[in-house]
Amino acid sequence: MNQAINVWGPAFLVCLTVCLTVLIGVITNNKRIDDLRGEFLSINKRIDDVNKRMDDQHRDLTAQNVSLRSDLIARIDGLEKRLVDRLERLEHPVSRP
User: Fold this and answer.
1) pTM above the 0.85 mark?
2) For 17-43, how does the pLDDT look when each residue is reduced to its tens digit (9 = 90+)?
């Protein structure tokens, strides 16, 4: 019996030490994971805020684009009308005495 304790005692202590180390590692790692979850929530909130800001800027730029496009179309229509009037005058020149 004494020889069995001498042979298996250190092996049992090593197994017990490994098991306790793993258990302590799992417990402390779970606490760190919970801490990281809190940090991830704050990061997600910041990302959501940035996305909202980008959506607002996109909406504003789209509105500006529509406004500029309508102004450009109005200018092009005005130029087209002027060109048509000039061409009509060239086709039917006014004779001067």
Assistant:
1) no
2) 999 999 888 887 777 776 777 778 888
The first and second tokens of residue 21, run together, are: 């180390």
User: And the tokens for 80?
Assistant: 């087209």
Produce one character per residue of 72-96: b if its CB has 16 or more CB atoms within 10 Å, e if not: eeeeeeeeeeeeeeeeeeeeeeeee
Return the closest-CA partner of residue 79 out of 71, 49, 91, 60. Answer: 71
Residue with tokens 């069995």: 4
The Cα 4–Cα 27 span in angstroms is: 34
Quote the CA–CA distance of 20 and 18 in Å, as a whole number: 6
Question: Distance (Å, rounded) from C-alpha 8 to C-alpha 13?
Answer: 9
pLDDT tens-digit profile of 46-86? Answer: 999 999 999 999 999 999 999 999 999 999 999 999 999 88
Alpha carbon distance 74, 63 (integer Å): 17
